[in-house]
Write a structure and sequence with these properties.
Length: 408
């Protein structure tokens, strides 16, 4: 069986004049816009990992306590997905993306005004809600407006940009903070998002069904799929995936080997070490596609667990830890699309959109728990944290294995 290229169900193209060819969007400009917007938008999840120290010092807290600014964002982001999908169905991808960029520019700028840990946490939660508008609308736009033969590359580009935002935005945040302070990170991000909104309005096509699709049907389908045994196991495995990813990078910041955690240059190298994997893994999609989605999900999670364990052996070696984190990131990049594809296969065509929303919800619930996992295990030291994280990822691999279809 040939696996589907996406968990987003394709829609018929917008109709042109009678008898004319379908009015597909121009792939290049649309995907360039969506990928470019994904980096500062989705990257708000990760940029704060590079700011825990400066923010804690300025707000009278500690990096461990301030991990809640990451957790609050991630949990609100996860909840936002449950609403963003139906809103996209009601108003269309272009309107959802455009107004989502404007709203996120506003909430991002507000974070820079935080005067206490409590206000920073509350404002980050608000930011997470608005940021959730982009991903489901971007995937829906690809499914509705991009030529079928271009959709695999389009999905890879958008997904890759979202994942690449983790190291890119951490590196950018670290650099901006050194020059202008942590508040400038959010102000620069807000300006970039606001500038992207009119470009999105100009480049993206309106939905042919804007304003005519309902909200209730999408909400009603969610509970049934979420509690079916095999999809439920996959949703749980998904939570371990990004939870483990965020926990590892949080651990490097708050409890890493002293030679690394206190060295801005070493932290910059570690954050950049994931970039080659972001570039290389999409080019391996054809080779990886020879295996079923279930097999790739289990293998990716298992490799992620093993590579996390290996970080405990690297000591204070920046190069050694960077090499292991490169493998770790590659494993995450293999497992993530395999999990969403597996969920889509279990959901079936009628519920694939709902499955995608629940996948994103589960992923970012995990991302919210990840910083607390690292902070809670900080007393064990860096080596102890990564052993705990490896155990969580191994549990994810076992759940993904249990959820495999008999033919997978």
């Amino acid at each position: 069986m040939t696996p589907p290229t996406s968990a987003v169900p394709p829609s018929p193209p917008a109709a042109g004049p009678a008898g004319a060819a379908p009015a597909w969007a121009r792939t290049g400009p649309a995907i360039a816009l969506l990928a470019a917007a994904a980096i500062p938008m989705v990257g708000q999840m990760y940029s704060v990992l590079a700011l825990l120290g400066p923010m804690a010092e300025d707000l009278g807290s500690t990096p461990h306590a301030l991990t809640w600014v990451s957790t609050a964002f991630a949990l609100a982001y996860a909840v936002g997905f449950l609403f963003a999908g139906p809103l996209c169905a009601r108003f269309g991808p272009r309107a959802t993306i455009t107004w989502g960029l404007v709203a996120t520019a506003a909430t991002t700028a507000l974070v820079a005004a935080a005067q206490s840990p409590e206000s920073a946490i509350a404002l980050r939660a608000l930011q997470g809600l608005t940021t959730a508008t982009l991903a489901p609308a971007a995937f829906a736009y690809v499914a509705e407006h991009i030529r079928p033969e271009h959709r695999p590359a389009a999905m890879t580009a958008v997904s890759g940009a979202a994942l690449a935002s983790a190291p890119v935005m951490q590196i950018a945040a670290q650099g901006i903070t050194l020059v202008a302070g942590w508040q400038a990170v959010f102000l620069v991000s807000a300006a970039a998002l606001l500038a992207a909104a009119p470009v999105a309005r100009a480049v993206l096509l309106p939905s042919r069904n804007d304003g005519r699709r309902g909200l209730l049907g999408a909400f009603a389908a969610m509970p049934g799929l979420f509690f079916e045994p095999r999809p439920a196991a996959l949703f749980a495995a998904t939570a371990t995936l990004l939870g483990g990813f965020v926990a590892v990078y949080t651990a490097v910041t708050v409890a890493g080997p002293p030679e690394i955690a206190g060295d801005d240059g070493a932290l910059l190298v570690l954050r950049a070490s994931a970039l080659p994997a972001m570039v290389a893994v999409p080019f391996l999609a054809g080779v990886l596609g020879r295996w079923s989605a279930g097999t790739r999900a289990v293998a990716g999670l298992a490799l992620a667990a093993l590579s996390v364990l290996a970080t405990a052996l690297m000591g204070g070696s920046t190069i050694g830890l960077g090499a292991v984190l490169l493998v770790f990131t590659a494993a995450i990049l293999v497992a993530a699309p395999a999990l969403v594809q597996s969920i889509g296969e279990h959901a079936g065509p009628e519920r694939q959109g709902v499955g995608t929303a629940l996948y994103a919800f589960s992923m970012f619930v995990g991302a919210g728990i990840g910083p607390q996992l690292a902070a809670g295990a900080a007393g064990l030291g860096f080596a102890g944290i990564v052993v705990v994280v490896a155990g969580v990822l191994l549990l994810g691999a076992l759940l993904a294995a249990a959820a495999r279809r008999p033919s997978a």
